[in-house]
């Protein structure tokens, strides 16, 4: 069974509000074996809403429309649905009386605007809203069923759970797993799994983000999942760091704890984000000694022990400074590992020799110092987040004994 979602609201487009309703519905529908094959955002325009709905009912078994059921003038979803399905819009006297009683009981005025919430396309069935005034409704279309829900997230979730979810039942939900990769670009991962894209009974999707690359697996049975996961795991090796809800900071922290090791950080361009990621893991006090944000060169010299000559000769953004940051913080905080990180996050400050996105990372320990230099794409925020990922991954590989 397939579904399409239409989220209505000018604020989702003009103000950049996140469409959390569609995300939530997609996850819930998937549990019932319903695959969401399309999601659309549309402003509060009757003709555009109707146009999206006409297209969706021609393709999907279910269409769920969210938003635009309130009493204000820009709430036009009822009218749009009636227009798209070529049905008259009718006032339900029983719903109008119920709304009037509810408003009067709370001392709120009830007028023609509020009464609009008792309108529905002919033949539609109300979907009760016990926590708000705007009820949803369910109406049959040619070849599809259309459910219309209010846009307030709490109300939408309540109506879906109470009235719509029972119509879908449990279903044959697909079996899913997300495998997480660090230290490799999306193209590298793609080359190793692209032959699996043509699986007849499942899907493999590669996604890139600030925290690495994800390989999303979706198949029909647990046995099939075990088989495809085993194949992907063998191909990715140590580049695979976790599954599903695992985080790189959490996995690295578990390795530190298992080996009885500790880490300290000296950060320049990431300005504490690395320490923040490490300490986001509950229990990190067992393996994190502390960190120093060494933004200014004088702080690098006076608080960490970076040599002035090193800075003058190689510059603050260099492998040499990263090494001295890592060794210095490890010494002053008494940890088994020290991480030094320095780079150019931008948007200014780059040169031809040292462009924006250049980051040097070093991990110092008794066996020696591991180093990594990366050129990271993105804006300032994304470069810094990706630098944290690269630093955690370098530490993780040291703990695994690989580079």
| Overall number of structural domains | 3
What's the CATH superfamily of the largest domain, by name? Answer: MoaB/Mog-like domain
Total strands: the figure is 17
Adjacency order of strands in the biggest sheet: 2-1-3-8-7-6
Q: Average pLDDT, to the nearest integer?
A: 94
Keywords:
403 residues; alpha/beta; Molybdenum Cofactor Biosythetic Enzyme, Chain A; Alpha-Beta Plaits; Maf protein; 3 domains; 6-stranded mixed β-sheet; 5-stranded mixed β-sheet; 17 strands; 40% helix; 25% strand
Explain how this protein is built.
This protein is of the alpha/beta class and 403 residues long. It has three domains: 2-168, 3-Layer(aba) Sandwich (Molybdenum Cofactor Biosythetic Enzyme, Chain A); 175-243, Alpha-Beta Plaits (2-Layer Sandwich), CATH 3.30.70.2860; 248-400, CinA-like (Maf protein). The protein is 40% helix and 25% strand. It is built from 15 helices and 17 strands. The strands form four sheets. The protein has a six-stranded mixed β-sheet with strand order 2-1-3-8-7-6, with helices on both faces. A five-stranded mixed β-sheet has the order 14-13-15-16-17, sandwiched between helices. The longest helix has 21 residues, at 380-400. It is elongated.
